[in-house]
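Progress against Task 2.4 (sequence-to-structure conversion) is shown through the following example record, which the project officer requested during the mid-term review.
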Amino acid sequence: MATRSDSCNGNGDSRRSFLKTTSVLAATGTLAGGLPIARAAHVGGGDALRIGLIGCGGRGRGAALNALKADKNCKLVAMADAFDDRLQFSLNFLAKQAEKAFQTTDRVAVDADHRFVGFEAGRQLIDSGVDVVLLVEPPHFRPAHLKAAIDAGKHVFSEKPVAVDSPGARSVLESVQAAKQKGLSLAAGLCWRYDPATRETMKRIHDGAIGRIRCIQENYLAGPLGHRPRLPEQTEFEHQLRNWQYFVWLCGDFNVEQHVHSLDKAAWAMRDEPPAKAWGMGGRLRRDPTQGDVYDHHAVVYEYADGTPVHAYCRQISGCDVDVSDTFFGTKGTAYLYGNPRIEGENPWHYEGPRPGSGMYDQEHKELFASIRSGKPINDGDYLAKSTMWAILGRMTDYLGKPLTWEKALGSQQDFTLPRYAFDVAPPTVPDADGKYPIPLPGLTKFI
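Structure tokens generated for the chain above:
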């Protein structure tokens, strides 16, 4: 499966109040421990880079290893997660893997006082003196953590998607501009932008090899994800956080968490110009109603002002055909991106270069660290936020059962931020007496 699942983590304050401490630090021009912001923004080739990981699930472990492989003079020095068991497991795993890969125990050096657990763990890590922050927690928490990290003068790798609602996407766009002003690097986990075959194919599309794009089709038809059973001692909040991919307020629905990879490739082909509007349909046919409130299928048509459509289909249903593909239809030919990149038509071509496979995950970190070392920051934030917003728009129009413009969706006031984060808090959606969760109903769901 092309996408990667991200890990579990929490955040103790709302998207707004959570940021006070780091904002003050940034305003004074220093980080925790008196480290000047300029030190974090510009690191010389001989200086060690200190990495902090927020989110210690499977994708978090993967991102940490990608970062360690990307730069020989960096160390993982801090970790944060809502759950101590996740942090301890990942720390032990990473220490063993790093020793095996690098023949040293020095690359993973997370002291006890740099192991942060709970709903303020992310803020504590950001304030702990790290240079680079890896945001691999559930998407719900990323806008707040991104803002805190940029306010504190940190370079950032952020997994996709970077928000679950429009206020979060707007916050991210503001953080992106702040990062540019401060000369900070921000790399995105939309990994296909770092795949050499995809880059070469997209370059040819942009150079006119298929002519004007007439239509795009994006398919992400896959099976369901794993689900952790409810344990008797868990509160509803903990159960949902441990199964965050099944709850809209935490993941944005699976078309946001997973299908964003496909939508990002469509956006890339269209030079990251957003569509004018979208309409579609979706629902839940076979997903267990006791396993969250996300749909199991979405079908969305994004339309540009000139009428160019992007047809986007995604599904998480077992026993069905699996099809992950990207097809670009132009006036001079057709480009096929996924699997065996090629162009058919007036300018036939097929990719013959290296296919590093998962190497694109390493490459995104290599380019991040190289940019920090060179003092020439990269910033993927614009397309990370916009592609996330593509997915949010698709979810919203499916829930509404009505067309929705890009501008109206971006201006939505629906905010999944909670006033307080704790395991005894009632989450935004709760099950009925039979353990079934309510889902949004098209035609009845209201725009907020």
